[in-house]
Specification:
Blueprint lengths: L2 E2 L21 E6 L3 E10 L2 E12 L2 E5 L6 H14 L2 E6 L5 H4 L1 H8 L4 E4 L22 E3 L11 E10 L4 E9 L4 E3 L4 E3 L13 H6 L12 H17 L5 E2 L3 H6 L19 E2 L5 H6 L3 E3 L1 H6 L5 H12 L6 E3 L7 E2 L2 H12 L11 H12 L16
Parallel strand pairs: 5-6, 6-7, 7-8, 11-16
Antiparallel strand pairs: 1-2, 2-3, 3-4, 4-5, 9-10, 10-11, 12-15, 13-14, 16-17
Helix pairs in contact: 9-10
């Protein structure tokens, strides 16, 4: 760990609305002199999960994969890395649909005007599908992965998933493999969810403590078991939107428990807590923490009609020689991995009912059926792996 913010700031319900300058960042040196991670939090209604930018040392300087918000703290740390390891020469946006990864790119590109910006195929925006240059990607130094080459191909392998038709736009994710260290960088499709709360919450554990309670009249109590319980529930919210073990009480009960002594501040939403957790709710969490998994939201909303491309992509990743660790853009900072782990995942996905229709995915399934009914997503299984090699 090479940096910790000492900045303290109050949490409010809508994390995406925070100014960039108010986001604490945890910076860690994952592999000495070769790989660094910059972590922040993003989310809504205190459902906050880590979002991660990875910095790779390449012969030409530094490569940024999946930028985070370029706060003053982030830029200061990047300047320090530049002073020791060379300039930021490459910025990579490895997704076409991940808004939380897309939004920081223009600002990061402005901070490093000599860096080449690489974006995936079929970038899109909603409600108006605007040209890439109108989205803030700098004209003259923005390149499209695969269509216009690849960054540092003599040192890195790039493996694309998609484009997959989402109806409104395309899903594309491009993984990056650093041959020297055996490190695989991915964005949204694959996750490794830790059992313990990530260290980024040490800056302010309020999101965890908020969800660790059983009712709105309970104050925020900070001790390890509460943090752990809050983390488990946060993961379930982020994974399933409405977890199976969750009930929503009537408004009469919600307001009856509000404004209790010790709960009359905005930090605790004045005691308004519209959730009730049933016995056994934690069993859902355990199923998500058994190694590498496909993000449940994507499995149920993006991949139902694209199992073949997903399996082909995972098996292509499994064939990478020297694979040792996975660094996702969310949740766990690093996960030991080898080709056999990915083959096992692909075989497990192929051998089960598809798309996942478990009870836990009930709300996601309802959303998917509604999107199908109104014609916003395609009906048929998509063959192959799109136009990305």
């Amino acid at each position: 760990m090479i940096a910790n913010s000492e900045h303290r700031w109050p949490w409010w319900p809508l994390l995406p609305l925070y100014p960039y300058g108010n986001r604490p960042t945890l910076v860690c040196e994952l592999l000495k002199g070769r790989i660094w991670t910059f972590e922040q939090l993003h989310g809504v209604w205190y459902v906050a999960v880590p979002i991660r930018m990875t910095i790779l040392k390449v012969r030409e300087g530094l490569l940024i994969y999946a930028p985070v918000a370029p706060t003053p703290e982030v830029l200061t740390q990047l300047r320090r890395l530049e002073a020791e390891h060379g300039r930021v020469c490459t910025i990579v946006l490895p997704t076409a649909s991940g808004l939380e990864h897309k939004l920081p790119v223009p600002a990061m590109a402005r901070a490093f005007p000599n860096a080449t910006v690489w974006i995936t195929q079929q970038q899109w925006s909603f409600p108006l599908n605007l040209p890439s240059r109108w989205l803030g990607f700098p004209a003259g130094r923005t390149r499209v992965l695969f269509d216009e080459g690849l960054p540092h191909p003599d040192q890195l392998d790039w493996i694309g998933l998609g484009p997959l038709d989402l109806g409104l736009g395309a899903f594309v994710e491009v993984a990056c493999f650093d041959r020297v260290t055996g490190t695989l960088l991915v964005t949204d499709a694959l996750l490794a969810i830790p059992k313990e709360p990530p260290a980024i919450f040490d800056f302010d554990p309020t999101p965890l403590l908020f969800h660790a309670r059983e009712s709105g009249n309970e104050p925020l109590l900070d001790y390890p078991e509460q943090r752990r319980k809050g983390w488990m529930r946060t993961v379930l919210f982020a994974s399933y939107l409405r977890p199976l073990g969750l009930e929503v009480p009537f408004w009469r009960e919600i307001f009856a428990n509000a404004f209790a002594p010790g709960c009359r501040t905005a930090r605790i939403h004045f005691g308004l807590y519209p959730f009730r957790w049933k016995s056994g709710w934690d069993s859902e969490f355990e199923t998500l923490t058994n190694g590498i998994c496909v993000a449940p939201v994507l499995e149920r909303l993006v991949f139902p009609r694209a199992r073949a491309p997903l399996l082909a992509w995972i098996r292509k990743l499994a064939g990478l020689q020297g694979l040792e660790r996975l660094v996702p853009a969310h949740y766990a900072r690093s996960q030991p991995i080898n080709g056999s782990d990915l083959v096992h995942l692909a075989n497990e996905l192929e051998g089960r009912t598809w798309p996942g229709e478990t009870d836990a995915m009930g709300t996601l399934g309802q959303i998917d059926h509604w999107l199908l009914r109104i014609g916003l997503v395609p009906q048929d299984e998509q063959p192959g792996i799109g136009n990305t090699p």
